[in-house]
Protein 1
Amino acid sequence: MDSTRIKKLAKIAGFDLCGVCSPQVDQKAQKQFFGWIESGYHGDMNWIAKEPDRRSDPSKILPEVKSIIMLGLNYNQPVSEDRPSECGEVSRYAFGRDYHKVISGLTKKLIRSIVEEFEPDESPTFRWFVDFGPFFERTYTEQAGLGFIGKNGMLINREFGSFVFLAEILTDLNLEPDQRDPISHGQCGSCRACIEACPTEAIISPRKIDSRKCISYLTIERPDNIEPELAEKMGNWLFGCDICQTVCPHNKDKPVTNCDDLKSPKGVGQFIRLDLIDQLETREQFLELTAGTPLTRPRLEGLKRNAEIVRQNQRRTQK
């Protein structure tokens, strides 16, 4: 089986992007990651700092790995600029079903279709992840020719911009790797739109993010109270944040997703009424609203905390 066939099967499975790269360790990315961890920029996300060598070396995940299949799924969709009062805003990626569930299904479908092309005793080996495994997914996606990493740390693709979910398959198949996109370096040029637009100044330098200041981290991963000076800068963001992507020129006029499961009717949508969150008192009520979506992550306490911050910010702007 060759890389071309893999890409055709990936499209059939439902992915928008597919590229192949070698499992060679990226020494530069490894050094940057270790320095990022040592600086404490990962905050309370301790799982990121766990087993850093395994995260940066695919052979420690699958010793017989020969190729990495990188996959992308567009999640862009229309957003309303008319923000209703007394509502909190949700990041674009969380409008619909939990992307982990959606992409897991597509990845399993792709692997089954690959396996079907082999005799039973020749079946290749696979290990796959969707954002939950120890893996340099953006680094290897860049190596697979699917884009470049922008100053906001996001993978930016020519066709879809940065509103793209990533997944990866490690395999012992010996596939022809793709060439890195020749525009993969310096494509942000002198643009500083994302850096200047970030309310909390979380982008401390190009491609270096202090997660402890990032609104997405604060609203989703932060386990306890948020400092007032940061809370005041969260604006209307109830879950996640899209500011650094929304202002990026590479995201202008990009196509919307074809994946219905990622769209608003399958989840909570762009806005949630704050009084609706106030009424949640039990875990069962919380899950009735959020089950099957990414919004289960901050738990009931975190979502209520975020709602109160949004309410206070709205009152402040109305004065």
Note: The chain has a mean pLDDT of 94.
Protein 2
Amino acid sequence: MKKIAVVILNWNGAKLLEQFLPSVVAYSEEAKIYVADNASTDNSLKIIQSKFPQITIIKNDSNYGFAKGYNMALQQVEEDYYALVNSDIEVTPNWLSPILSVFDNEPNIGIIQPKILDFKNKAYFEYAGAAGGYIDQFGYPFCRGRIFDTIEKDQGQYNDDVDIFWASGACLFIRKDIYRKLNGFDDDFFAHQEEIDLCWRAFNLGYTARYTSKSVVYHVGGATLNEGHPRKTFLNFRNSLLMLTKNLPERKLFFLLFIRLCLDGLAGIQFILKGKFKHCWAIIKAHFAFYSLINKTLKKRTGNKADNYYHCKSIVYQYFVKNGKVFES
């Protein structure tokens, strides 16, 4: 049996599969390739069966979203290492060898992210993950190569191997035993920020996430849910609050949650000033959805919560007040 499984989650992504599966098949000799299908109603499965017969199909019986969709599918995948790959990812030659080398030689590394560049503008990093992710004290995520909407050109400034806090769900490698020990993604998230929550829970158990520039992929981004969609605003704001509730240290929990709720209110006002009323309403709905889940989420708090989870106190302050547009180590 091969050590690594490349698992691509699909829902009505026939065109993406036709476009991007050829690179995965061509450059993944070390892996067994799976497509986990969330009950697609298009011709996704026919395309895989006719054009890519070497790929194993896992059929979920409903559209469970990203989190539960992977959780359901990975129950059937027994390779030692999982590569969770979006359907809009183009991989490159030798993308798996550096990952296998790290996993085989550094047992303390539980999660790995490759360099993620923009498929549409390959000289630049891609929004979702770039060169590895971090959060600030209030749970705002950012990356080396991308802070809020400022995206850097790849000029070799992140050609290194470094420990990070979170790896992008667009292309995330994780040891099977760790994924199962963590019970996978949190089903309640459906989609967005579930990978940060997963990495935070792994961090609290003492596992390390690593970025390596030796592996490179290209990501379209927004192919399944556009960046400007209110649904995405809802999921990001709700899930960020759920993630903080689960993972913050006890002594900081309610204070930092209160501050974050206030900051979300300011974000809502900013949306109103920009005329983006649906996004402001999405934040309000996200808060009410969070309140409905808060008791259930508090029960998910387990074990010790590390204090040193954040890279800086406030990325919002650094970016908007100090004009810090690029990553500071």
Note: The longest helix spans residues 277-298.
Protein 3
Amino acid sequence: MDHKGFLQQVVELSWEKWKAYEGGPFAALVVKDGVVVGRGWNRVTGTNDPTAHAEMVAIRDACRAIGSFSLEGAVIYSSSEPCPMCLAAIYWARLERVYHANTAAEAAAVGFDDAFLYQQFALPATERSLPVERVFVEGALDVLAGWAADPLTVPY
């Protein structure tokens, strides 16, 4: 199947799940070697989980299916350009490429505007609208050092 074929499946899945009122109008597929290994659709409102975006759900599904946190060699097809959270997860999962149908601007036009997140990330931490503050806690650095020194640690 070609890219348009997988994206057509994504569009159909997003339509189906939105019409079932399971979440927003978004879906995603993770594909490896031409085979769908993960499916996801927006489940934010159905699960009360703000991280349950289509791409996140598809990545979780694919990782469970292949038994690995790495999706190296796979690609993701999304109904819309991924938001910053999903894009970060795509990088962490080591997906090789993103194919999307709708743009971020098209999603923003119907109320899914994530431009403010990109604006916030570009600011120094002290100037963001969400205050983030480091508080020193005894032993916190020891946990990181212990993890790094443990020969049984699985790096990612």
Note: The first helix runs from residue 3 to 19.
